[in-house]
Amino acid sequence: MKKLVKNNVYWVGKTDWELKKFHGDEYSTHHGSSYNSYLILEEKTVLIDTVWAPFDNEFVENLEKEVDLAKIDFIVSNHGEVDHSGALNKLMEKIPNTPIYCSANAVKSLKGQYFKNWDLRILKTGDTLDIGNGKQLVFVEMRMLHWPDSMAAYLTKDNILFSNDAFGQHYASDHLFNDLVDQCTLYAEAEKYYANILTPFSAVLKKKLEEIHSMNLDIDIIAPSHGIIWRDNPLQIVDKYISWCDDYKENLITIIYDTMWNGTKTLAEKIAQGIREKDADVQIKIFNLPKSDMNDIATQIFKSKMVLLGSPTINNCALHSLAALTHYMKGLKFKNKKAAAFGCYGWSGESVRILNEMLNDAGFDVVNDGLKCLWNPDSEVLEKAFDFGKDIA
User: Which of 271, 278, 329, 357 has its CA 20 to 30 A from that of 225?
Assistant: First the structure.
């Protein structure tokens, strides 16, 4: 069932209430998601993006109820990733000669994934397509936001920016618009989305936002390809992106640890007490890594000015959970964040040095040699941990 976005523009996507993991198991989606496809019914009939392949039959059947598929003049594929293009195969079986407009890189993407000889037509920034009634679609390449093939489309007169993966969230709702949903959940999911998906491309995004601003587009609605549509003060999310892409940090220190027999856990809590003693205003968050969600932790790291990692030593190494986290952080390319390490050991004690090396490799500014504790922390070591926290603050 289509839902009205504005005038002759309709949402024809799929709300995925049950989705809990995305990008394989790489991204947690506690609030589900949606795959937003849009239908424009002007003199030209235009479909912007489709949905993920598991819903292709449902998508095509529902679309047929709303429009004669043969009357679709062209399809816009803003991004070739399968959560947006997955229903193309099924749809193109019905209308095989319909043109698909996309970026040059999307031609490679779509051909490489689907092995079809569709009528793929290349667009670049500034290109336009007339859709009748004095309206045009204006295109902006969005390379690396977050794939090389990404682009956005702007509908003149209606002033709608179809932004694809930019400005989206993984958030399922029976409401389309930002003014109708829980604001805390909306912004938490938008921030998590940025932190885990777009952070590596912050420098590119900063330039792209400046480029879009220079085009002097009046934007009344931002319609992303996941989650909620921004119609109430839509530029509020653009303002957030401007802030987030500029090496974002809050007055927050995040402590993340794994532990075998609770010695490293005890150090983490005592370090936090030392931080609090020295600085009454700084926010402190502590996570036992295996009991926490990796993407939620990454969101806190994104917000932090400093990160502390703790692990005991096992087999001359840190625990593997910390290795996975630092590998993940390296891919996110966090900038201008400080770090330190701590941990207990019984015999050889390499974990703190290894954590420092991994933090350095992930791009963090490691501020000291870290804190090591032989066996369980006694009163003397706990005092050292407390002082370590004060020094960190």
Answer: 329
Query: What DSSP string describes 334-352?
Result: --S-EEEEEEEESSS--HH
Output the pLDDT for position 84.
96
Residue 206 parent element (H or E): helix 202-214
Report which residue type is found at 256: I
229 and 263 both lie in a single domain:
no
H-helix or E-strand spanning residue 151? strand 151-155
Range of the domain at 298: 253-392
pLDDT digits (tens, 9 = 90+) for 3-43: 999 999 999 999 999 999 999 999 999 999 999 999 999 99
Residues 21 and 145 in one domain: yes
Kindly state the average pLDDT of the residues 166-172. 97
pLDDT number for residue 315: 95
Give residue 367's identity as a one-letter amino acid code. Answer: V
Report pTM: 0.95
Q: Residue 146: what pLDDT?
A: 82
| Residues 15 and 163 grouped into a single domain | yes
The single residue listed with the structure tokens 């024809």 is 12
Question: Please, what's the largest Cα pairwise distance for the chain?
Answer: 79
Mark which of 194, 212, 244 sits at the end of a domain.
Answer: 244
Question: Which residues are catalytic, by number?
Answer: 23, 79, 81, 83, 146, 165, 193, 226
Q: List 153's β-bridge partners, or say none.
A: 139, 162
| Strand-strand pairing, 160-164 and 221-224 | parallel
Instruction: Please give the average per-residue pLDDT across 133-157, as a whole number.
Output: 93
What are the pLDDT digits (tens) for 175-224? 999 999 999 999 999 999 999 999 999 998 888 888 877 887 899 999 99
In the block, which residue shows the tokens 């989606």?
Answer: 29
Q: Span 46-68, mean pLDDT? A: 97
Six-digit token pair at 156?
């003149």
Write the CB contacts of 106 (distance below 8 Å, at least 6 apart in sequence): 77, 79, 80, 120, 149, 151
Contact predicate 342/271, CB 8 Å:
yes
- Kindly report each contact of residues 205-210 with a partner whose C-beta sits within 8 Å and lies 24 or more positions away, as own/partner: 205/145, 205/166, 205/241, 205/245, 206/242, 206/245, 206/246, 208/140, 208/142, 208/145, 209/238, 209/241, 209/242, 209/245
